[in-house]
């Protein structure tokens, strides 16, 4: 299970405002080129965002669905990645003095990602999360 944390130098309500804003999703989620509204009102449970991943000349469209939302502290998503399957991404937002500690925990649920999951994938998740949390921190701290 890939878990990583980052201290963000801004209050928790600012971090939550970025997580709750569907237009910000592609700005902090690594690998996401663009997003479109899906079902429901983000980030209510059952709501979704469609997103595109671009790899060179190819574009793949997928979807992320909110599975659990305890505003302003917990957001759990299920990312659908076509033939790779689905993954659970849990984000926890904790007050840390005047700042915010964000913890991300991701693991594959279904499909090839779950079947092929190994230590190498854990390393790749860690690298992705480091970049993702860095982007989230910059976005939140600029708000």
Describe this structure in words.
By secondary structure, this protein is α+β, with helices and mostly antiparallel strands. Helix content is 29%, strand content 43%. The protein is built from four helices and seven strands, in the order βααββββββαα. Strands 1-7-6-5-4-3-2 form a seven-stranded antiparallel β-sheet. The radius of gyration is 15 Å and the shape is globular.
Order of helices and strands: EHHEEEEEEHH
Radius of gyration based on Cα positions: 15 Å
* Strand fraction: 35-45%
Percent helix, as a range, is 25-40%
Q: What are the segments in which pLDDT stays under 50 over at least 5 consecutive residues? A: none
Distance between the termini: 31 Å
Largest sheet: 7 strands, antiparallel
What is the overall shape?
Answer: globular
Total DSSP helices: 4
Rounded mean pLDDT score:
89
Spatial sequence of strands, sheet with the most strands: 1-7-6-5-4-3-2
Number of strand elements? 7
Query: Structural class, judged by helices and strands?
Result: alpha+beta
